[in-house]
Design goal:
The structure is a single chain. The chain is α+β, with helices and mostly antiparallel strands. It folds into 2 domains: 112 residues, Rossmann fold; 153 residues, Tumour Suppressor Smad4, CATH 2.60.200. Helix content is 27%, strand content 35%. It has 10 helices and 14 strands. The strands form 2 sheets. Strands 5, 6, 7, 8, 9, 10, 11, 12, 13 and 14 form a 10-stranded antiparallel β-sheet that branches. Strands 2-1-3-4 form a 4-stranded parallel β-sheet, sandwiched between helices. β5 and β6 form a beta hairpin. α7 crosses α8. The longest helix has 12 residues. The protein is globular and about 55 Å long. It starts with a strand and ends in a 5-residue tail after the last strand. The relative contact order is 0.17.
Amino acid sequence: MEKRFAIIVNPAAGLGKTFKKLPVLKEITQKADAIFDYYITESPHHGTRIADAIHREYDAVVAFGGDGTANEVMNGLAGSDTPFGLIPQGTGNDFARSIQVRKDLQQAVNVLLNYKIRPMDLGIIGNRVFLNGVGVGFDGFVNYRSKNQKFFKGSLSYLYAVLTSLTLWRAIPISLGIDLEPMDKVHAFLIAIGNGWSVGGGLKLTPQASIHDGLFDICHVGNIAIWKIMLNFARLKTGTIGQIREVATRRCKKITIESEYPLPVHFDGEVYDINAKKVDISIVPQSANVIGGWES
């Protein structure tokens, strides 16, 4: 029997480039030995409502867009057994790296047709789930600024936001709780909570993170000088940021962050809250099914 796939399309993803590639994707899927139905989102969170309404009719529900689109679709699938698939066409495509799916349309469709499913962990922040990760502090501030500047587009937007934010953001005092340990008063330049290993289009704040191990990887950057950040920026590409003295890494299942100061927070590359005072984040192991380009 032919597999049935629902593809949820975010026409705004990738600065509109996703929608322009839709005819090419349809041509590819028309030639496939499977049924593909397309649904176009019309507003924020529409992808969640679509996935929740139609997932029982399909062998998988697929997000066609970036990390934000993937987040919306998974929020509609959470709690079900329906597999999640991804055809990445956004700006960062960080979650796609964890499931070994490239931006190439034909390769992404082939992954769906191969239908290799593995259980994955989901994170919870507030009343939303996330696939890839959460950033608090500088990471959240950069994400907010990259989406609210008008000078650059795509990956240049993120780089511009990083460089300009370095002159504006400083480590702030927070209370940090890890699992069942008592709250600890520390300073934080940023805290990255990784379910997947990639952020910001391939940067490695949590290079050892796995969506299958039932744990978050945490990267806590403390009170660090700007010159030292600039000097060690390449470590975000090599995955060696943990070698810096001001950086602490560990694994956990639950993390609580509180501060008297506003905390900018992103999840899966989307703004969650620009002025949070408390954030509770927990992991739900093996709580979703995902189709990936696994080699075995």
